[in-house]
Each structure stands twice: as structure tokens, then as C-alpha cells.
């Protein structure tokens, strides 16, 4: 799984943030490693010159094999809260999408082979 982190000018400590985000994503999305090819993270401070609540934004996008990309966004007072909120949203979205796919695969069909129906009737 490839992880790409993008930050705006208002976000500091790029190198340590990059290492931390990479570790967090690998831990959080480990169970999706077979399906997710890439996770892109975009961190920004929407009004970095001014203060304000919920001005930090984290957008995450997961590229899933055989499916369209899944994207979520979270606003929060801190980068950490925005990152964790977006991570939780993305996990729920992937669980929903991939879980439905798994449930569909595990079902036993009610349709039977035509020859089997003829044998049962005799």
C-alpha cells in the first residue's frame, strides 16, 4: 500500500508529521492492505494566518482495486483531531464498501442447477 502525504503552507513539521501519518495509516488500514493500493492524505490549515476553531482540514482518499476511489474530509481544531477523524470515516467507508462485497460472495445461491431440479422431482 502506497501512502502519499500532502500538506499546505500552514502545516509545520513536515518530516515528523509524514513519519507519524505513515505509521498511523499502516496500522489503521492493515486489514485493507490486500484491497487498497494507495492512500492520499491532504492536510491543511484553511486560515493559517488567523486563528479559529475547526480551521484544520484533513482529506483522505483511498484507491481500492476494482472500485472507484473513496474520499472523506474532516474539519477540526487541530491537525491530529482532523487526521484521526478522517481516518475513522475512511475506515467506516471501506468497511461498508468491502464488507458488502464479502457478504455477497459468502451467500449461497437459491438458484439450483436445472438437472438437479429434475432429479429431485422424479
Structural class: alpha+beta
Helix content: 40-55%
Overall 3D form: globular
Strand order of the largest sheet: 1-2-3-4
CATH class: Alpha Beta
Major sheet description = 4 strands, mixed
Give the CA-CA distance, first to last residue. Answer: 55 Å
Q: What is the residue-mean pLDDT, rounded to a whole number?
A: 82
The number of helical segments is 3
CATH superfamily: Ribosome hibernation promotion factor-like
Shape-level CATH architecture: 2-Layer Sandwich
CATH topology: Double Stranded RNA Binding Domain
- The SSE string, one letter per element, is EHEEEHH
Low-confidence runs: none
Number of domains: 1
Rg over alpha carbons: 21 Å
The count of strands amounts to 4
Strand fraction: 25-35%
Quick structural overview:
The protein has 122 residues and is of the alpha+beta class.
What does this structure look like?
By secondary structure, the chain is of the alpha+beta class. The chain has a single domain (2-107), classed as Ribosome hibernation promotion factor-like (Double Stranded RNA Binding Domain, 2-Layer Sandwich), CATH 3.30.160.100. The protein has helices spanning 14-28, 79-106, 114-121, and strands spanning 2-7, 36-45, 56-64, 70-76. It has a 4-stranded mixed β-sheet with strand order 1-2-3-4. Helix 1 links the parallel strand 1 and strand 2 (36-45). The protein is globular, with a radius of gyration of 21 Å. The N and C termini lie far apart (55 Å). The model has no long low-confidence stretch (mean pLDDT 82).
Amino acid at each position: 500500500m502506497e501512502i502519499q502525504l500532502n500538506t499546505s503552507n500552514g502545516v509545520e513539521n513536515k518530516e515528523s508529521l509524514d513519519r507519524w501519518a505513515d505509521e498511523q495509516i499502516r496500522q489503521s488500514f492493515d486489514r485493507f492492505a490486500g484491497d487498497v493500493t494507495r492512500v492520499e492524505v491532504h492536510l491543511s490549515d484553511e486560515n493559517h494566518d488567523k486563528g479559529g476553531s475547526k480551521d484544520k482540514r484533513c482529506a483522505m482518499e483511498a484507491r481500492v482495486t476494482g472500485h472507484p476511489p473513496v474520499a472523506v474530509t474532516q474539519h477540526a481544531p487541530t491537525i491530529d483531531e482532523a487526521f484521526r477523524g478522517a481516518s475513522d470515516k475512511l475506515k467506516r467507508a471501506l468497511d461498508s464498501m468491502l464488507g458488502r462485497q464479502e457478504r455477497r460472495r459468502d451467500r449461497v445461491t437459491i438458484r439450483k442447477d436445472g438437472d438437479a431440479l429434475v432429479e429431485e422431482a422424479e
